[in-house]
Amino acid sequence: MPPSRSDAPMSDHSEDRRAQCADSAPYLLGALSPAAVDAFEGHLAGCPACQDACDDIGPAASALGGLSAADVRELLDDRVRDDPDRLDPPTAPRPPASRRRPHGPGFRLPVTVGRSGPFGSDRLPSQSSGPGGPLTGTEKPSHSCLLVRSLARWGRLRLRVVVTLGMLAVLDACAAVVPGYDGE
Known about the structure:
- By secondary structure, the protein is an alpha+beta fold.
- It has 2 domains: 15-63, no CATH class; 66-177, no CATH class.
- The protein is 35% helix and 18% strand.
- A 4-stranded antiparallel sheet has the order 1-2-3-4, covered by helices on one side.
- Strand 3 (156-165) and strand 4 form a beta hairpin.
- It is elongated, with a radius of gyration of 18 Å.
- The relative contact order is 0.14.
């Protein structure tokens, strides 16, 4: 069996390489400058970790990239959409480290479950959203369920996209969206 790309060792752990490795999501969402795109594509050709990251988040980035500003506003929780002041200003101070939730495998499930209810909302996007354009009445969506969960905190909107086939989640990705950015 041939080794996978993730089995290959990373030969360079410089600060520049680590900074470029953080550019996978912005690259896939089209948020990088032309110079940064060229630099990342050169880096991507020789970085198995970034190749795997792009393979993992590419479908979610494509789905999020196809959402217009109106689609994103439609996905917002009604309370947030009706009262834009609910979003904290981007300069709001973060709570002290001692008051933040602990991170780690034991805490991820409660945090994920806690995102719905009073803190966020689960919405199915309209059939017209997405990179493939509007669906006609005779077409079936490509996935059995596309769930978009929105959570407004600290001056940003965080979208979580979960694609499921039956009861199996086949894609789970998050993206932060700065309020007021229309992608233009």
